[in-house]
Amino acid sequence: MTHKICKECGEINSGSARYCSNCNSSLLDVKKTEQSTEPINYSKVQSIAYSSDTVTIGQWVGIMIVLAIPFINIIALFVIAFGEFNESINNFGKASLILALVGIVIAILLRGCTGLL
Ligand SMILES: [Zn+2]
């Protein structure tokens, strides 16, 4: 006997259920769980959710290496800002893009003023 635990409200539904019987949210991406009387460990669920939102040191190192490469880093910034990444990485990418664009605009303006095109 399997069951599905609703992610939204914690209701225990049958293993074949597609929608929660309590709150009607989709159970399609909920894994079937073996029947047990054990209560849901919310602190464990929260720690998993938290860790998935945290960017690991390895990810940051990878991002910084890519951003250290000239020209590639501009493309990488767009990928980082708008790609399927963690929200923190997306925000970092967008912030870096804004700063890069400001830098480019200032560089163009300065060159225009000094006539060193
Ligand atoms: Zn529910």
Automatic annotation (TrEMBL):
The family database entries (SUPFAM superfamilies) matched by this protein are listed as: Zn-binding ribosomal proteins (SSF57829)
Q: Which UniProt keywords apply?
A: Membrane, Transmembrane, Transmembrane helix
Return one Gene Ontology term, BP aspect: translation
Q: Which residues form the signal peptide?
A: none
The record lists the membrane-crossing segments as 60-83, 95-112
At the top level, the lineage of the source is Bacteria
User: Which protein are we looking at?
Assistant: Zinc-ribbon domain-containing protein
| Species in which this protein is naturally found | Vallitalea longa
